[in-house]
Each structure stands twice: as structure tokens, then as C-alpha cells.
Amino acid sequence: MLHNGILKLSLKSTWRNQGCRVLFRAASKSANFTGLIENELRQVSPGIRELLSSKFEELSKCSRYYTIAQGKQMRPSLVLLVSKATSLCSGIDQSIVGSNFLEDDAPDHVSTGQVLPSQLRLAQITEMIHTASLLHDDVIDHASSRRGHPSSNVAFGNRKSVLTGNFILGRASTAMARLRTPKVTELFATVVADLVRGEFLQLKNTADTNSLELQPFHFDYYIEKTYLKTASLISKSCQSAAILGQCSPTVIEAAADYGRYVGTAFQLMDDVLDYTSQDETLGKAANADLNLGLATAPVLFAWKQYPELGAMVINRFNCPSDVKKARELVESTDGIEATVKWANDYILKAHEALQCIPDSPARQALHAVAEKVVARNY
């Protein structure tokens, strides 16, 4: 655990036992967890391309651009795995009319371990919203590449990229409305607002631009931004999968917690990879965060040891030598190791969140995905 109020995660004794994680780490290396959802995952990209079809050929080309070179598909994979894992929860087999009614249990949904059509559509919608956010982010960040190819703003220009992102959000909203589940629609409307709020938080590195000394609120600000920009979509999509599966409130909350913890850990590791991975492995330029003026977790931890980083953080590394100097300071401290440890703390919480879900290959796959998040190098 990190001290000085930076992180307060209450871990139950079940997950204090590191032997549990050894098993999951071994499983994450050998298990092909996508095999459980192979058929459904194969339908995600074609379904998205169908949803993005337009009589305007250039608009169709722009909107499908990021679906050609597929990314990690982590978000739709999590939606599908949560759908399978929670389908085995007993709550969804409860009668909607009472067990004594004409000797008929009449369950509204019988647990089969399968993904519902609405949940498959949810996986597609989740990836569409993520893709729209990438289009907008690449314009804001003046990106030059994405997934090893020219970014959309380079290929089509800023105007078309922004309009395309808006179009994808519109089509995703239409598909969401057709699910006819008001709570899920509300959650995803909140996600879109969260993405914008997170981007606004990223416009500066701290809530107090006059503080040159590291304070706990700097980490709070960072975590809030991370939730809004990254973890919100993952959390609410996992939560929505459980809602569509008609699970109990306890299971729905557990799915949301799992997604939030995994999403936060994912972003923490993304911050680490900006320092440890090569451009061709990461799919984007290394040092990208510092060049954008962003003080990510490794910088915040290094700031604790090197107070001179404070002025660089406040000024968003805008002096010619700031990026090089900041990287050297980060690499000379335990900032990267502390960030990895922080990510692992969140993964422990993700494992714990799954305990109310019956054990199954799908739940084991969710554990394995969590471990893979902190073991990845891309």
C-alpha cells in the first residue's frame, strides 16, 4: 500500500494471500481467455461496421478507419466475459410471477452461460464510444499515429475526424436507445459526459496551479481524471452487462467495481509504458505524455523526491529541456515501480470484487484479464 493518504484501499484477508495471485498470474500466461468469447468477439467489428454504414462514402470510410487495424478489444472482451460470468448468478432465475402460479416458475431469463443479443450489442456500442473518444483525443493531442498507422487527423484532417467522432457517438446512441433499457442508456450518457469532463481536467495537471510542493490532492486529481477518461467507460459497460442480464443489485455493483478497478490499473500501466516501451510496441510515440505536458503517476511519485519537478508540472514541461530532465528524474527514482505497485493494488481490489459471482471459466477469465493488465508491455 502507498502511504501518506495517497491511496487507501481496504483489502480483505482473502486477497492479502499472495498465493491467490500466483495462481491467476499463471493462468493469465497460459489461458486463452478469449476462446470463451471467440464467436461473440468475432461479431464485434462486423457489427460496428454495419452500424456505421452511411450513404456518404467518405463518412463511412472515416468512421470505419480505426476498425481496420483492430486494437486490443479489451472493452468488448470484458463486456462479453462479464455477461457470461454473471449469467450464472442465481438472481436471474427468480420467478417473475411466483413459484405457485400454475406450477410454472416462469423465469424472465434462464441462466445458460450464454451472451444475450443485447449484451453483444452492448459490447459493440462500448467499442464505438471508445473509438469516438480516440478520434477526438487524436485531434486534441495532435497525434500522428494510432495502432501503427497514421492517425485519423493525419489521414483525413481535423475537421473530418471531429465530425466522424460525433457521427460514431450518434450511431452508438441510436443503438443504445434500441436496447430499451433506460438505466443502461443513462449510464452511457454519463460516460460521454465523463469523457469530456476528464479531457477538461487534463487541460491542467493539478487543481492548484500555485502549489509547487507535492500534496495528496495531486494524486486525487490524477485519479479523478483517470476515472473519467478511462475507467468510467469500462466500469459502466461491465455494470450495464449485468443489468441487461437482469442480475441482482449486488452483482451489478460488483461488475461496476471490477470494471472501475481494472480500468484504473490499465491507465496506470499505460503511464508506465510511456517510459518503458518502444514506439513500435506501444503503437504510439514513447514520451508522448511528457511531450503533451501531462504529469502522470510516475512523475507525481518522482516529484515527491525531486521538488524541482513542481515547477515543470505546473508549467506543463513547456521549457525546451523540461521533457528530457523530467524523464531523467523519473527514471532515477522509484516512480515507475511505485506506479506498478499502485496498479497492482487496484488489481487486488478487482479480484475481490468478483467474489460474489459464482466460479466459472468466465470468472476465471476475468481474473486472468486483470492480471494481464499489469503484466502487459503494449
UniProtKB/TrEMBL annotation:
Organism: Schizosaccharomyces osmophilus
GO cellular component: transferase complex
CDD domains named among the record's database cross-references: Trans_IPPS_HT
Protein name, per record: Decaprenyl diphosphate synthase subunit Dps1
Family per similarity comment: Belongs to the FPP/GGPP synthase family.
Cofactor names: Mg(2+)
A GO biological-process term: isoprenoid biosynthetic process
GO MF annotation list: metal ion binding; prenyltransferase activity
The organism's place on the tree of life at top rank: Eukaryota
Keywords: Isoprene biosynthesis, Magnesium, Metal-binding, Transferase
